[in-house]
Amino acid sequence: MMLSRSRRAVAGGGLLLASLLGAAPGRAAEAGTLTIYNSQDEGPVEALAAAFEKKTGIKVAFRDNGAPALARQIVDEGDHTPADIFYAEYSTALVTLADKNLLAPLPGDVTAAIPAQFNGAKHDWVGVTARSFVLLFNRKLIAEDKLPASIMDLAKPEWAGKFAYNPRAAAFLEMVVAVEKQKGTEAAKAWLTGLKANGKAFPKNTAMVLAVDRGEVELAVNADNYWLAVAKERGADTLDARVHYIGNKDPGALLTVSGLAIPKFAPHRAEAERFAAYAVSEEGQKVLAEAAGDVPLRPGVVSPTALKPFASLDPSPVSAAEIGDAASALDLERAVGIN
């Protein structure tokens, strides 16, 4: 039976996964329980927590919400937060807390396990998994060798009405920052203006996968993990939607990072550090690789679902730390009227 995100419990093994969303504010988890504020989709972090408890005997409780909401909650709770770990689907929320000095420094062996470009500049958050931006295309409507060579090309008139994008997605805002950093602010503004004129805005990333598959649009700007999720459910061979990696260090080949941090006022710091260490260990990364469509970031751990070897992606050079909180991207989108 699939359990709801508002009330979680895993039978067997004694793992406490009861959501704290409906509980009173404060340290609601039972004594000695590690509390994770989690914005990841259901599955990977639960698998990691189950493996961690089996290995250490430390119980885990979850509070689930979107990353911005959880970050705001940590700010509001201050030194009374019950959060021991903040596990964010996108790095922008981690940067927001880092900028407010609300994250604790991580042990050196934790940050050293992951390449520096996926970690916080102040060593107070660490990347755990990543996904790549791609172009999804309908194989019956367009050949892969006819796809745009750069994400920037979608602003050209020849692509009018042919593609979908989700301007309000957190990951898309990160890509806007990558465009701005690689091409300049004016070029990014012109590009967004072209997307507004040419593209079809969708509110959900999974909906774009399905729209491409049905032939409603020829292609879509999306992350590869959304295609993987649909392919896992429906069978990859049944889909007309296919995945194209742009590469060439293009902004449209940006890697977006999921990561974790320990809030500055975490009540169980020692246990939180053990969880962080486990998440980036070879064992923990293998657990995540099996449970998610994302790519593990520890060198040497290979995702069984990866469509293309991580080393051959040739992604955008813009790092997670350089993305920052993506506030400039939101300003640009609002300036051109797409958010």
From TrEMBL:
Signal peptide: 1-28
SUPFAM superfamilies documented for this protein: Periplasmic binding protein-like II
Cellular component terms (Gene Ontology): outer membrane-bounded periplasmic space
One MF term in the entry's GO annotations: metal ion binding
InterPro entries: Ferric-bd, SBP
Annotated binding of Fe cation, by residue: E89, Y226
Superkingdom field: Bacteria
Pfam families named among the record's database cross-references: SBP_bac_8
Keyword Iron included in the entry's annotation: yes
Sorted UniProt keywords: Iron, Metal-binding, Periplasm, Signal
Transmembrane spans: none
Family: Belongs to the bacterial solute-binding protein 1 family.
UniProt name for this protein: Extracellular solute-binding protein
